[in-house]
Amino acid sequence: MSSVYRKVKGGVTAPQKFLSHAVSAGVKNPDVDRLDMALIVSEVSCVAAGTFTINRVKAAPVKVSQTHLRDGDVCAILVNSGNANACTGVKGLEDARKCARVVGKLIGKKQSQVAVCSTGVIGLPMPMVRIEPMLSALTEGLATGEGTAVAKAMMTSDTCHKEISVSLKVGGETVKIGACAKGAGMINPHMATMLCFVTTDAKISKVALNSFVSDAVEVSFNRITIDGDMSTNDSVILLANGASGCKSIRRGTQDAKKFQEALNYVMQEMAKSLVRDGERVTKFVTVNVKGAKSYNDAKKVAEAVANSSLVKCSWNGNDPNWGRIIHAVGYSKAMVKEELIDIHIGGLAACLGGLEANVSMDLLRKKVAGDAFTIDINLNLCEGEYTIYSSDLSPEYVDFNRSEYAYWKQARRDGLTKQ
Amino acid sequence: MSSVYRKVKGGVTAPQKFLSHAVSAGVKNPDVDRLDMALIVSEVSCVAAGTFTINRVKAAPVKVSQTHLRDGDVCAILVNSGNANACTGVKGLEDARKCARVVGKLIGKKQSQVAVCSTGVIGLPMPMVRIEPMLSALTEGLATGEGTAVAKAMMTSDTCHKEISVSLKVGGETVKIGACAKGAGMINPHMATMLCFVTTDAKISKVALNSFVSDAVEVSFNRITIDGDMSTNDSVILLANGASGCKSIRRGTQDAKKFQEALNYVMQEMAKSLVRDGERVTKFVTVNVKGAKSYNDAKKVAEAVANSSLVKCSWNGNDPNWGRIIHAVGYSKAMVKEELIDIHIGGLAACLGGLEANVSMDLLRKKVAGDAFTIDINLNLCEGEYTIYSSDLSPEYVDFNRSEYAYWKQARRDGLTKQ
């Protein structure tokens, strides 16, 4: 934690003039009573920015929200869990647009001012018959201090809700940043996954906000991997309404630096919490690479190690297996010289100059047996650095994901299967 | 099978004038009596070609064999299992060269005429004290018809030995191609893995042989994936001694076409047998991609699908989960249009135009429940095609690879651990 910001209570409604509400619509299963739809609204006009999955198969709400963020003045985010509205064709787009239009009307805004996000099963049509009637309940219940309910309504196979809030000073005024997120697998069984919403009462221009968000995503959500798969629905959306009364935060200023630092922290904490709550994950592993020929080379090495099934299996088994790590370094396509590679596990040298270090195996094993540890890889070539947050791979992950689970059950319930 | 060649009995000693022998040296464990060192020698001078891992962390024998194949007239291959001689520094190189030198002397050849291959544990020095004394036994026992023993001596976590042989006519003469291979995981726990040796009594120039081998590897070993990891030791070596008396096979001729076809078949059969015998694999899955913008795009899509943990988990669970397949297609970085993507599973349409096809789920599930099936993906854009052979991912694979297994036990046995 830095001296620039401090953690405060709450999530997306911690910043001033943000309202939210969550309801149970039975999106996935009408017989189960759990929060599964939520709405975040800024009471005053605001600017918005977002980043989305680069998967070429994009869910309908991703396509719709991208257009709204580009063309409109988004001030509200509608989210549902239980159905991803992905691979649903023209009907899926119509459903997403209709939700935005209806909510917009209810809060006195245009369709293009409402972003829509969905997470859940891929390939099934949205149960609009259950969703539409709940939209007015959602808007009628809007209130401050309901942020936690939003975090809960987004969950799919997450085992806990995830939210955070910080405050910082901008030119004498107190500014807050709040966020909530959901994850689970990078992508679940037929689930389409990562969502994060951030609100702030700082005053920021759209151009500056875009830059703040993309920089923060680069050091947070782009740095995590659970199973190496990338979802059709990944979305990060930030709303900034200026309600704190602070002066506008301009790029390149000291205030911008402070705000970026606080925003990075908020997003990194959310990103790390997704890894910790990944499907059947037992360990949180930080992979630091330095000494690479370039930033891109460091990234290649970190990603190869963090995504290697064999490396992740060894972590699950408390095995300080540097041989697997160095082989993943070798196939990363980065420039490496075997005889220069150093690998430290939990701060202890496991491999120096490409050879086994003189280290106690028992001590190394103890490091990997912990529920969080760091792998430091130094290529000793140049100045390129990169860090990624990863997890182990457990037999339980495979077992969980091999079962025919959400899709067919849900389709059958809604009478959509063809026999 | 084609009319060009036919399968015959035997492996690497099926072609004329190839001798081999295998012995038990206790490389991994002196207390276990199993074949673990073998030698293949051509009685007459021959030309050799090879392809090797592109992992930048290369085992010592890979470096040595690459040099020998480039500079020398390789006519012998020495192989051991139980120790990969990888990440062993200068000492590893000296050990590999010494083995080649001693074997060369024993058979009246130069060091540079002997290729050396190792597979087994990474990071431990070669137990030369057990290996060296067996080199004369290896050369003394050289005989025809011992090919199967070579295939057995190469095995690590393979559950069966792998060999094949075919015969074909080249200008009236009968020519044979023989091969043996070992695999298991693409890379094992600390194991460094894929090896394939091919012999032929066809007469071929070095230039032509290089081209035949690289074309055959492209459609065989480069098309398989078990866990997406790439080993430090992968090696394919082909020896051609011309002992059949056939005329020299020149590139671009009808004979070359026939020989290439037979060689492709031999290597493809070996490659497929590695997938079938992959660690804890229960299914053999052929992934065909067509309609891509280019060959490279088709390859990207096939590799993304064949390497996706979630897709592989679903296959393990008999789940015809096209949603996971299309999401992997989407993140493959190939040019795709969601609304044009067709996916067939076992010949049945699962997804047409990016949407669920009108198909019986029970029928689809039956296809995936088989121990071999095909996934056909048509991007419907252009003419790019690619095929890859893959497997499922089982909880047992993770369980097998999470256990602290070969390395520490072996190191402890040889008194190499530091406590």
Give a structural overview.
Two copies of one chain form a homodimer. By secondary structure, chain A is an alpha+beta fold. In chain A, helix 2 links the parallel strand 5 and strand 6 (114-121). The longest helix of chain A has 23 residues, at 254-276. Chain A has two domains: 7-276, L-amino peptidase D-ALA esterase/amidase (4-Layer Sandwich), CATH 3.60.70.12; 284-393, ArgJ beta chain, C-terminal domain (Ubiquitin-like (UB roll)), CATH 3.10.20. In chain A, 33% of the residues lie in helices and 25% in strands. Chain A has helices spanning 60-71, 89-106, 128-131, 135-140, 147-153, 206-218, 254-276, 295-307, 309-316, 322-330, 361-369, 395-402, 406-413; strands spanning 5-7, 18-23, 37-42, 47-52, 76-83, 114-121, 162-170, 173-182, 191-192, 195-200, 235-240, 284-292, 342-345, 348-352, 355-356, 372-378, 384-391. Chain A has a six-stranded mixed sheet with strand order 1-7-8-10-11-4, sandwiched between helices. Chain A has a six-stranded mixed sheet with strand order 15-14-13-16-12-17. At the A-B interface, helix 9, helix 10, strand 15, helix 11 and helix 12 of A face helix 9, helix 10, strand 15, helix 11 and helix 12 of B.
Short description:
Two copies of one chain form a homodimer. By secondary structure, chain A is of the alpha+beta class.
Q: Helices and strands of chain A, in N-to-C order?
A: EEEEHEHEHHHEEEEHEHEHHHEEEHEEHH
CATH superfamily membership of the largest domain in chain A? L-amino peptidase D-ALA esterase/amidase
Strand order of the largest sheet of chain A: 1-7-8-10-11-4
Number of domains of chain A: 2
| Structural Rg of chain A | 22 Å
Q: Which pair of protein chains has the largest interface, and what are the residue counts?
A: A-B, 76 and 76 residues
Low-confidence stretches of chain A: 187-191
Percent helix of chain A: 25-40%
User: How is the quaternary structure best described?
Assistant: homodimer
Main sheet of chain A, how many strands, which sense, barrel? 6 strands, mixed
Average pLDDT for all residues of chain A: 90
